[in-house]
Write a structure and sequence with these properties.
By secondary structure, the chain is an alpha/beta fold. The chain is built from 3 helices and 3 strands. A 3-stranded parallel beta sheet has the order 2-1-3, covered by helices on one side. The chain is globular and about 40 Å long.
Length: 110
């Protein structure tokens, strides 16, 4: 059983990423650009959020969507913790090393 709530991206939800309360910690679920997250996985998600698209596009490239969501998670964590962004070693790359292990490895942390 998962101990971390899943948060999925979807263009078919009223919850907008900039305004919705995100659980912390959470695990992000990103879907295929054309088909989105599959129904079986989506049913396991505690929250579904949309990334606002001012130009009216339905979806972003999955790498771009992941970058937006992970950055927003990190930004909120920094904001609520009172930590100055310059004091964190990987912020210049857009991640704080705690977001998920692949990012921590990319930032050179174990």
């Amino acid at each position: 059983e998962l101990q971390v709530p899943l948060v999925a991206t979807s263009s078919h939800t009223e919850h907008q990423l900039p305004t919705v309360a995100l659980p912390e910690p959470c695990a992000w679920v990103m879907g295929h650009e054309g088909q989105g997250v599959g129904d079986a996985v989506m049913s396991q998600c505690a929250l579904k959020v949309a990334i606002p698209q001012p130009g009216g596009e339905e979806s972003l490239n999955v790498a771009a969507a992941a970058a937006v969501c992970l950055y927003e998670s990190m930004r909120r964590r920094l904001w609520t913790s009172g930590v100055e962004p310059d004091s964190m070693p990987c912020v210049r790359h857009g991640f704080d090393g705690r977001t998920f292990s692949a990012v921590a490895l990319q930032c050179g942390e174990n």
